[in-house]
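Structure in, sequence out. Go:
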Protein backbone atom coordinates (compact mmCIF):
# COMPACT_ATOMS: atom_id res chain seq x y z
CA UNK A 1 0.00 0.00 0.00
CA UNK A 2 1.32 3.46 -0.97
CA UNK A 3 0.54 6.51 1.10
CA UNK A 4 1.43 10.14 0.43
CA UNK A 5 1.79 12.60 3.30
CA UNK A 6 1.82 16.40 3.47
CA UNK A 7 1.07 18.55 6.51
CA UNK A 8 1.60 22.27 6.55
CA UNK A 9 3.50 23.48 9.61
CA UNK A 10 4.11 20.02 11.12
CA UNK A 11 7.41 18.17 11.53
CA UNK A 12 7.02 15.41 8.93
CA UNK A 13 9.51 13.03 10.51
CA UNK A 14 7.67 12.73 13.83
CA UNK A 15 4.35 12.22 12.06
CA UNK A 16 5.83 9.65 9.69
CA UNK A 17 7.33 7.77 12.62
CA UNK A 18 3.89 7.59 14.26
CA UNK A 19 2.17 6.45 11.06
CA UNK A 20 4.86 3.87 10.29
CA UNK A 21 4.43 2.38 13.76
CA UNK A 22 0.72 1.77 13.11
CA UNK A 23 1.04 0.97 9.38
CA UNK A 24 4.22 -1.13 9.28
CA UNK A 25 3.50 -2.66 5.88
CA UNK A 26 2.71 0.60 4.07
CA UNK A 27 5.11 2.63 1.94
CA UNK A 28 4.61 6.15 3.28
CA UNK A 29 6.33 9.02 1.51
CA UNK A 30 6.34 12.78 1.93
CA UNK A 31 4.60 14.32 -1.08
CA UNK A 32 6.68 16.83 -3.02
CA UNK A 33 5.71 19.01 -5.94
CA UNK A 34 5.68 16.91 -9.12
CA UNK A 35 5.10 13.58 -7.34
CA UNK A 36 2.28 11.91 -9.25
CA UNK A 37 3.33 8.30 -8.64
CA UNK A 38 0.44 6.03 -7.65
CA UNK A 39 -0.92 6.22 -4.11
CA UNK A 40 -3.76 4.52 -2.25
CA UNK A 41 -4.26 7.06 0.51
CA UNK A 42 -3.29 10.67 1.27
CA UNK A 43 -2.67 12.00 4.79
CA UNK A 44 -2.94 15.77 4.74
CA UNK A 45 -3.22 19.03 6.64
CA UNK A 46 -3.76 22.16 4.54
CA UNK A 47 -2.23 20.56 1.41
CA UNK A 48 -1.49 22.45 -1.81
CA UNK A 49 -4.04 21.93 -4.60
CA UNK A 50 -1.36 20.29 -6.78
CA UNK A 51 -1.09 17.36 -4.37
CA UNK A 52 -4.69 16.26 -4.82
CA UNK A 53 -5.81 17.59 -8.20
CA UNK A 54 -6.77 14.71 -10.51
CA UNK A 55 -5.79 12.06 -7.93
CA UNK A 56 -8.72 9.75 -8.59
CA UNK A 57 -6.40 6.80 -7.80
CA UNK A 58 -6.80 7.56 -4.07
CA UNK A 59 -9.12 5.36 -2.03
CA UNK A 60 -9.48 8.10 0.60
CA UNK A 61 -7.98 11.37 1.81
CA UNK A 62 -7.44 11.68 5.56
CA UNK A 63 -7.53 15.20 7.02
CA UNK A 64 -5.19 15.34 10.03
CA UNK A 65 -7.59 17.45 12.06
CA UNK A 66 -11.31 17.79 12.85
CA UNK A 67 -11.90 21.03 10.92
CA UNK A 68 -12.14 20.62 7.14
CA UNK A 69 -12.78 24.27 6.21
CA UNK A 70 -9.21 24.72 4.91
CA UNK A 71 -9.15 21.59 2.74
CA UNK A 72 -12.62 22.23 1.31
CA UNK A 73 -11.34 25.58 0.06
CA UNK A 74 -9.42 23.56 -2.54
CA UNK A 75 -12.78 23.20 -4.31
CA UNK A 76 -12.56 21.30 -7.57
CA UNK A 77 -8.90 20.44 -6.90
CA UNK A 78 -10.32 17.75 -4.60
CA UNK A 79 -10.69 14.59 -6.68
CA UNK A 80 -14.36 13.83 -7.31
CA UNK A 81 -15.64 10.68 -5.70
CA UNK A 82 -12.69 10.23 -3.32
CA UNK A 83 -13.93 10.11 0.29
CA UNK A 84 -12.56 12.80 2.61
CA UNK A 85 -12.28 11.57 6.19
CA UNK A 86 -11.50 13.77 9.16
CA UNK A 87 -10.05 13.04 12.58
CA UNK A 88 -12.84 12.24 14.97
CA UNK A 89 -12.04 13.48 18.52
CA UNK A 90 -8.80 11.44 18.92
CA UNK A 91 -7.90 13.11 22.20
CA UNK A 92 -9.15 16.59 21.28
CA UNK A 93 -12.52 16.26 23.03
CA UNK A 94 -11.08 16.01 26.51
CA UNK A 95 -8.89 19.06 25.88
CA UNK A 96 -11.93 21.01 24.70
CA UNK A 97 -13.81 19.97 27.84
CA UNK A 98 -10.89 21.18 30.01
CA UNK A 99 -10.60 24.49 28.19
CA UNK A 100 -14.32 25.30 28.19
CA UNK A 101 -14.89 24.16 31.79
CA UNK A 102 -12.02 26.38 32.89
CA UNK A 103 -13.38 29.42 31.02
CA UNK A 104 -16.90 28.85 32.39
CA UNK A 105 -15.75 28.40 35.97
CA UNK A 106 -13.34 31.34 35.87
CA UNK A 107 -16.24 33.57 34.92
CA UNK A 108 -18.87 31.91 37.12
CA UNK A 109 -16.68 31.90 40.26
CA UNK A 110 -15.45 35.48 39.52
CA UNK A 111 -11.78 34.48 39.61
CA UNK A 112 -10.72 37.46 37.47
CA UNK A 113 -12.26 39.81 40.00
CA UNK A 114 -10.59 37.98 42.90
CA UNK A 115 -7.27 38.29 41.07
CA UNK A 116 -7.78 42.04 40.84
CA UNK A 117 -8.71 42.21 44.52
CA UNK A 118 -5.61 40.23 45.44
CA UNK A 119 -3.47 42.67 43.47
CA UNK A 120 -4.99 45.45 45.60
CA UNK A 121 -4.47 43.33 48.76
CA UNK A 122 -8.21 43.38 49.36
CA UNK A 123 -9.98 40.60 51.28
CA UNK A 124 -13.54 40.98 49.96
CA UNK A 125 -15.94 38.10 49.29
CA UNK A 126 -18.16 38.92 46.29
CA UNK A 127 -21.76 37.75 45.87
CA UNK A 128 -21.91 34.38 44.12
CA UNK A 129 -23.56 34.15 40.70
CA UNK A 130 -26.67 31.98 40.75
CA UNK A 131 -26.19 28.70 38.96
CA UNK A 132 -29.76 28.68 37.66
CA UNK A 133 -28.98 31.98 35.86
CA UNK A 134 -25.87 30.50 34.26
CA UNK A 135 -27.32 28.47 31.43
CA UNK A 136 -24.60 27.26 29.08
CA UNK A 137 -25.50 26.94 25.42
CA UNK A 138 -23.24 24.89 23.14
CA UNK A 139 -23.47 25.65 19.42
CA UNK A 140 -22.51 22.39 17.68
CA UNK A 141 -23.38 18.96 19.03
CA UNK A 142 -20.84 16.82 17.22
CA UNK A 143 -17.90 14.85 18.58
CA UNK A 144 -16.40 17.85 20.39
CA UNK A 145 -19.61 19.61 21.45
CA UNK A 146 -20.81 16.43 23.13
CA UNK A 147 -17.53 15.97 24.99
CA UNK A 148 -17.68 19.60 26.20
CA UNK A 149 -21.21 19.00 27.49
CA UNK A 150 -20.12 15.78 29.23
CA UNK A 151 -17.40 17.75 30.99
CA UNK A 152 -19.83 20.45 32.10
CA UNK A 153 -22.49 18.05 33.40
CA UNK A 154 -20.75 17.48 36.74
CA UNK A 155 -21.22 21.18 37.64
CA UNK A 156 -25.05 21.15 37.38
CA UNK A 157 -25.40 24.21 35.14
CA UNK A 158 -28.54 24.31 32.99
CA UNK A 159 -27.28 23.02 29.61
CA UNK A 160 -28.56 23.77 26.12
CA UNK A 161 -27.36 22.68 22.71
CA UNK A 162 -27.95 23.59 19.06
CA UNK A 163 -27.29 21.54 15.94
CA UNK A 164 -28.52 21.26 12.38
CA UNK A 165 -30.55 18.08 12.92
CA UNK A 166 -32.75 17.25 15.96
CA UNK A 167 -30.97 15.55 18.86
CA UNK A 168 -31.81 14.05 22.22
CA UNK A 169 -29.01 14.33 24.77
CA UNK A 170 -29.50 13.40 28.38
CA UNK A 171 -29.52 16.52 30.59
CA UNK A 172 -29.35 18.93 27.64
CA UNK A 173 -32.20 20.99 26.22
CA UNK A 174 -31.68 20.59 22.49
CA UNK A 175 -32.58 23.02 19.70
CA UNK A 176 -31.96 22.67 16.00
CA UNK A 177 -31.95 24.49 12.70
CA UNK A 178 -32.52 28.14 11.90
CA UNK A 179 -35.94 27.99 13.56
CA UNK A 180 -34.43 26.91 16.87
CA UNK A 181 -31.53 29.34 17.01
CA UNK A 182 -33.25 32.40 18.44
CA UNK A 183 -34.92 30.50 21.32
CA UNK A 184 -31.58 28.83 22.05
CA UNK A 185 -29.76 32.18 22.18
CA UNK A 186 -32.46 33.88 24.26
CA UNK A 187 -32.06 31.23 26.96
CA UNK A 188 -28.25 31.18 26.91
CA UNK A 189 -25.98 33.03 29.35
CA UNK A 190 -22.67 31.43 28.39
CA UNK A 191 -22.32 30.72 24.69
CA UNK A 192 -19.82 28.06 23.58
CA UNK A 193 -19.00 27.84 19.87
CA UNK A 194 -17.87 24.49 18.52
CA UNK A 195 -19.40 24.51 15.04
CA UNK A 196 -17.58 23.72 11.80
CA UNK A 197 -16.93 26.75 9.60
CA UNK A 198 -19.19 26.51 6.55
CA UNK A 199 -20.99 28.99 4.31
CA UNK A 200 -23.94 28.67 6.71
CA UNK A 201 -22.02 29.23 9.94
CA UNK A 202 -19.63 31.98 8.78
CA UNK A 203 -20.57 35.32 10.41
CA UNK A 204 -23.44 33.53 12.20
CA UNK A 205 -22.85 35.47 15.43
CA UNK A 206 -23.45 39.05 14.37
CA UNK A 207 -25.01 41.85 16.39
CA UNK A 208 -28.58 40.64 15.78
CA UNK A 209 -27.78 37.15 17.08
CA UNK A 210 -25.35 38.09 19.88
CA UNK A 211 -27.76 40.67 21.27
CA UNK A 212 -30.32 37.93 21.83
CA UNK A 213 -28.13 36.33 24.46
CA UNK A 214 -29.12 37.03 28.06
CA UNK A 215 -27.96 40.32 29.57
CA UNK A 216 -24.41 39.90 30.93
CA UNK A 217 -23.70 36.94 28.64
CA UNK A 218 -20.27 35.43 28.12
CA UNK A 219 -18.86 34.04 24.83
CA UNK A 220 -16.35 31.20 24.46
CA UNK A 221 -15.13 30.47 20.93
CA UNK A 222 -13.10 27.32 20.34
CA UNK A 223 -14.30 26.69 16.78
CA UNK A 224 -13.21 29.20 14.12
CA UNK A 225 -12.81 32.98 14.31
CA UNK A 226 -15.03 33.67 11.30
CA UNK A 227 -18.17 32.48 13.12
CA UNK A 228 -18.20 35.80 14.98
CA UNK A 229 -18.35 39.32 13.55
CA UNK A 230 -15.51 40.85 15.59
CA UNK A 231 -16.78 44.44 15.58
CA UNK A 232 -20.24 43.32 16.74
CA UNK A 233 -18.82 41.31 19.64
CA UNK A 234 -16.69 44.27 20.71
CA UNK A 235 -19.64 46.64 20.47
CA UNK A 236 -21.80 44.41 22.69
CA UNK A 237 -18.98 44.01 25.24
CA UNK A 238 -18.42 47.75 25.29
CA UNK A 239 -22.13 48.54 25.72
CA UNK A 240 -22.35 46.01 28.56
CA UNK A 241 -24.74 43.49 27.00
CA UNK A 242 -21.93 40.92 26.92
CA UNK A 243 -19.71 40.71 29.99
CA UNK A 244 -16.68 39.29 28.22
CA UNK A 245 -15.27 36.50 26.09
CA UNK A 246 -12.64 33.80 25.97
CA UNK A 247 -11.40 33.42 22.41
CA UNK A 248 -9.04 30.74 21.13
CA UNK A 249 -9.59 31.24 17.40
CA UNK A 250 -9.52 34.29 15.15
CA UNK A 251 -10.21 35.34 11.57
CA UNK A 252 -6.51 36.01 11.13
CA UNK A 253 -3.97 33.97 13.09
CA UNK A 254 -1.72 34.98 14.73
CA UNK A 255 -4.10 37.73 15.86
CA UNK A 256 -2.62 40.95 14.36
CA UNK A 257 -1.04 43.27 16.92
CA UNK A 258 -3.34 46.12 15.94
CA UNK A 259 -6.51 44.07 16.53
CA UNK A 260 -8.75 45.72 19.16
CA UNK A 261 -9.34 42.35 20.92
CA UNK A 262 -5.83 42.66 22.40
CA UNK A 263 -6.65 45.80 24.33
CA UNK A 264 -10.13 44.80 25.55
CA UNK A 265 -9.54 43.66 29.13
CA UNK A 266 -12.76 41.66 29.17
CA UNK A 267 -11.50 39.39 26.40
CA UNK A 268 -9.18 36.51 27.22
CA UNK A 269 -7.05 35.37 24.30
CA UNK A 270 -5.26 32.07 23.72
CA UNK A 271 -3.30 31.15 20.55
CA UNK A 272 -5.49 28.37 19.07
CA UNK A 273 -4.53 25.81 21.68
CA UNK A 274 -7.90 24.70 23.03
CA UNK A 275 -7.42 21.25 21.49
CA UNK A 276 -4.14 20.26 19.91
CA UNK A 277 -3.94 17.26 17.63
CA UNK A 278 -2.70 14.27 19.59
CA UNK A 279 -0.30 12.74 17.09
CA UNK A 280 -0.19 9.19 18.37
CA UNK A 281 -3.96 8.88 18.85
CA UNK A 282 -4.66 10.43 15.47
CA UNK A 283 -2.18 8.14 13.70
CA UNK A 284 -3.69 5.12 15.47
CA UNK A 285 -7.23 6.20 14.55
CA UNK A 286 -6.32 6.77 10.89
CA UNK A 287 -4.45 3.45 10.66
CA UNK A 288 -7.54 1.73 12.10
CA UNK A 289 -9.74 3.42 9.52
CA UNK A 290 -7.42 2.44 6.65
CA UNK A 291 -7.56 -1.17 7.84
CA UNK A 292 -11.36 -0.97 8.02
CA UNK A 293 -11.59 0.52 4.50
CA UNK A 294 -9.32 -2.25 3.20
CA UNK A 295 -11.79 -4.77 4.67
CA UNK A 296 -14.59 -2.99 2.81
CA UNK A 297 -16.13 -1.51 5.97
CA UNK A 298 -17.46 2.01 6.46
CA UNK A 299 -15.70 4.39 8.87
CA UNK A 300 -16.72 7.34 11.05
CA UNK A 301 -15.66 10.88 10.19
CA UNK A 302 -16.67 10.85 6.51
CA UNK A 303 -17.05 14.48 5.43
CA UNK A 304 -20.20 15.53 3.58
CA UNK A 305 -18.62 17.95 1.13
CA UNK A 306 -21.95 19.57 0.27
CA UNK A 307 -22.73 20.36 3.91
CA UNK A 308 -19.10 21.42 4.46
CA UNK A 309 -18.33 19.24 7.49
P1 LIG B 1 -18.72 17.47 14.04
O1 LIG B 1 -18.80 17.43 12.55
O2 LIG B 1 -18.66 16.20 14.81
O3 LIG B 1 -19.97 18.30 14.61
C1 LIG B 1 -20.41 19.47 14.04
C2 LIG B 1 -21.70 19.92 14.75
O4 LIG B 1 -22.09 21.20 14.23
C3 LIG B 1 -22.87 18.98 14.49
O5 LIG B 1 -23.65 18.83 15.64
C4 LIG B 1 -23.67 19.71 13.40
O6 LIG B 1 -25.06 19.42 13.40
C5 LIG B 1 -23.45 21.15 13.81
N1 LIG B 1 -23.67 22.03 12.66
C6 LIG B 1 -22.96 22.14 11.53
N2 LIG B 1 -23.50 23.04 10.70
C7 LIG B 1 -24.59 23.52 11.33
C8 LIG B 1 -25.58 24.46 10.98
N3 LIG B 1 -25.57 25.11 9.80
N4 LIG B 1 -26.57 24.70 11.84
C9 LIG B 1 -26.60 24.04 13.03
N5 LIG B 1 -25.68 23.13 13.43
C10 LIG B 1 -24.71 22.87 12.57
O7 LIG B 1 -17.48 18.41 14.38
P2 LIG B 1 -16.50 18.37 15.66
O8 LIG B 1 -17.33 18.45 16.88
O9 LIG B 1 -15.51 17.28 15.53
O10 LIG B 1 -15.69 19.73 15.42
C11 LIG B 1 -16.34 20.99 15.32
C12 LIG B 1 -15.35 22.05 14.86
O11 LIG B 1 -14.44 22.38 15.89
C13 LIG B 1 -14.43 21.67 13.70
O12 LIG B 1 -15.10 21.76 12.47
C14 LIG B 1 -13.31 22.67 13.83
O13 LIG B 1 -13.56 23.81 13.06
C15 LIG B 1 -13.33 23.05 15.31
N6 LIG B 1 -12.08 22.62 15.99
C16 LIG B 1 -11.33 23.56 16.63
C17 LIG B 1 -10.14 23.20 17.27
C18 LIG B 1 -9.31 24.20 18.02
O14 LIG B 1 -8.19 23.92 18.39
N7 LIG B 1 -9.82 25.37 18.32
C19 LIG B 1 -9.68 21.79 17.27
C20 LIG B 1 -10.60 20.89 16.62
C21 LIG B 1 -11.74 21.30 15.99
P3 LIG B 1 -25.60 17.92 13.05
O15 LIG B 1 -25.15 17.06 14.24
O16 LIG B 1 -27.06 18.07 12.98
O17 LIG B 1 -24.92 17.52 11.78
Amino acid sequence: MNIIYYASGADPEVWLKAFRAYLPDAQIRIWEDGDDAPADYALVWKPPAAMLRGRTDLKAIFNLGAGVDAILQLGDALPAGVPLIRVDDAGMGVQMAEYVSHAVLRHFRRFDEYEMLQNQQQWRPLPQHRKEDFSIGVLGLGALGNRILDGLKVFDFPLLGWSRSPKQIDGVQCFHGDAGLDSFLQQTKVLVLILPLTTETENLLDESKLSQLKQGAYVINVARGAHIVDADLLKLIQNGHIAGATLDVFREEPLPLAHPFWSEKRIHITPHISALTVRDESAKQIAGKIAALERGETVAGLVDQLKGY
